[in-house]
Amino acid sequence: MADAAFDSRLRSAAAQWLTERSQIHQELVTRDELEEFVFEGARIPLIDRQRGIRKPAILDAALSIKTTFTKPGQPPPYEDREGPDGLLRYKYRGSDPDHPENVALRKAHEWNLPLFWFVGIAPGVFLPRYPVWLVGDERKDLQFVVALDEAQRMIQPRSVIDEERRRYVERLTKLRLHQPVFRARVLKAYATQCAICQLRHRSLLDAAHIIPDGLPQGEPVVPNGLALCKIHHAAFDENILGIRPDHVVEVRPDIRKEVDGPMLRHGIQDMHGRRIGLPSERSARPDRDRLEVRYETFRSAA
Q1: What are phi and psi of 216, to 5 degrees?
Q2: Taking every annotated instance into account, which residue ranges of this chain make up the domain HNH nuclease (predicted)?
Q3: How does DSSP assign the chain, residue by residue?
């Protein structure tokens, strides 16, 4: 087995490789790329094709965990949820706490080793979250407790925390996991282009909620999302434009009468009556009920 220094160098090199990818707007990584990672002349896959927990034979502790992609509306094989302390849980492999993969994760927990979390965005495509740490081992519930950053590592699992601190922990989880995963899944579903104007510059695209976060039906799921460029996202949020349940764009009447520069004319006014682009996967298309609710909000503003 490798010594601690080799383990540390491997994790650092993998993190640097993933960071360099993200800096050129390649935030997603494929299974093939993860399987071909090379370190110090040797191929050391960062992910396991068949298993959710990856422990290379050369290491004593787990290197990464994986959340498998499931289509919108389908239940995932394992449900990773937040506990009463606001921290996320990652389920064991199976029901045996002493399964070798669970033992490998337990060692990562006991030795305070950073892990990579690869979250499925589409079949064979993942959004990396790193570093993450295991800060608790809940054998009775067959799960580990996950911290997504240094601040969450300070929370004692299952501890009683006040409402303000819980909201802080949950906000970190949104920023570090839920929002990036929602954005990645929505952009992937819409082929990385604005549903209204087809702009394809990833850095200028957002995942817009149809029903705002925090309201009933406002969950961060793809059928509640639209890939929009930043201009059209802001216009949608401000009810400058709306999207009918039949997927046709409407621009507010008073905005259509305004006289301004070319951005208003070509970027907003010319979008009136245009049909939005839709994901090829039917299960990823905007939910009609949510569109109806959101469109009524737009009509009220108009």
Answers
A1: -55, 135
A2: 194-243
A3: ---HHHHHHHHHHHHHHHHHHHHTT---EEHHHHHT-EETTEE--SS-SS-SEE--TT-SS--EEEE----TTSPPSS---B-TTS-EEEE-SSS-TTSHHHHHHHHHHHTT--EEEEEEEETTEEEEEEEEEEEEEEGGGTEEEEESSHHHHTSPTT----HHHHHHHHHHHIIIIIHHHHHHHHHHHTTTS-TTT----GGGEEEEESSPTTSTT--S-GGGEEEEEHHHHHHHHTTSEEE-TTSBEEE-HHHHH----HIIIIIIGGGTTPBPP--SSGGGSPPHHHHHHHHHHHHHH-
**42: β partners:** 39
Report the amino acid identity of residue 4.
A
Token pair for 220: 């961060």
The pTM of this model reads 0.89
In the chain, where are the structural domains located?
A: 4-185, 192-301
Domain 4-185, CATH: 2.30.280
Burial 60-92 (b: 16+ CB within 10 A, else e): bbbbbbbbebeebeeeeebebeebebbbbbbbb
Q: How far apart are CA 243 and CA 250, in angstroms?
A: 6
Query: What is residue 160's predicted lDDT score, i.e. its pLDDT?
Result: 72
Cβ proximity of 61 and 114 under 8 Å: no
In this predicted structure, the answer to whether residue 78 has a pLDDT above a threshold of 70 is no
